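Bumping with the actual sequence this time:
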Amino acid sequence: MDTMDEIAPKLQVSCVFSAFARAFDKFFSLSANYPKGKGEDFAEYMKEKFESVLLFHVEGAQGSMHDLSFMAAPAIYMNRWHCLTYALYLLRIPKKQDNILLRNLIVIMTSVEMIAVSRLFSIMYISIILPMRWLAGKTPELAEYNWGPVSMGRALDTLHKTMKEISDKPSLILDEDYMMNIFKEYIDELPPFKE
């Protein structure tokens, strides 16, 4: 599907990524924590059909954390093909064809726009959010490296500069070397950060 505008209203599909993340978590979570979800069955299906495939954990997408969408994106992006294969398999079972959550997920997982968003959020999570979260959380332990709460201002300046560069040249977001080295200047300065 090339555009979300083509989605039938009766499928109750939301174009909000956090809603997609919650639906994905409900249906595919291997912890099977949602009664109508298929996490346990999905795990068995994967063992039977794709035994050697590594599945990424669906981060708990329930609740109201501000970075929920970013945390869920890597599993959604990396597992999408296998989840879609399983969902299409289920859709062939007559009793499952009326499952709105299942049909909703199939539509979203085949949307070019949502695939692109999950890829973008995955890149941002790995290259920006995880390093910033680590720096913020470990700041009290980094005094011996002359790093403290005020030092986080430097990290924010680095992030601001990077966002401006990406805004001027959006293709940078797909440059792995560029994205994975945003906080390179702190790697030599903070050995635990390098680890």
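The tokens above came from a reply further down the thread. DSSP finds nine helices and no strands in the chain.
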